[in-house]
Amino acid sequence: MIQRYDKHCETSDHHKDAALRTHYYKVTFERIWREVERWTERDQEIVVATGNKERGELSYERKGKPSLFVVISIVSTSVLETAVDITCSTEDQRISGIYRVVKEEVLHIYKHLDAHFSRSGDPTKNERTTSV
């Protein structure tokens, strides 16, 4: 019940919520990075704050109500495997709680990446190609 008022949602390898565990993709860092850049540049509600390819971090603000701040961390774990973690937070509040909104932003990002790339450990999916 208290979680509904949290203003922060973050993924990790061992998160108790399976939906918020780190996603691993069978693709290179470069392919994930390009797709995240392309997607954030096309979304009218997103204003990219920083993109640091060397660190593998891209941050943006999603305009609207509530305003959300997101950091996407992309790490190459091997030649053809890349991990993606996401942090989302807001300063806004709602009487009914705001956690659902920040969590939905994280899940929206993962859903987008899942539609373009195969996740490691999922032999039923082949890597989908994206236009460059």
Explained architecture:
The chain is α+β, with helices and mostly antiparallel strands. It contains 2 helices and 6 strands; from the N terminus they run E-E-H-E-E-E-E-H. It has helices spanning 29-42, 99-116; strands spanning 8-10, 23-25, 46-52, 57-62, 68-78, 81-89. Strands 1, 2, 3, 4, 5 and 6 form a 6-stranded antiparallel beta sheet that branches. The longest helix is centred in the last third of the chain and has 18 residues, at 99-116. The protein is globular. The termini are far apart.
What level of helicity do the residues show? Answer: 10-25%
**Which regions contain 5 or more consecutive residues with pLDDT less than 50?**
123-132
State the major sheet: 6 strands, antiparallel
Structural class determined from secondary elements: alpha+beta
Instruction: Give the N-to-C terminal Cα separation.
Output: 44 Å
The count of strands amounts to 6
Q: How large is the count of helical segments? A: 2
| Arithmetic mean pLDDT | 88
Strand content: 25-35%
Strand/helix succession: EEHEEEEH
Coarse shape: globular
What is the C-alpha radius of gyration, as a whole number of Å? 15 Å
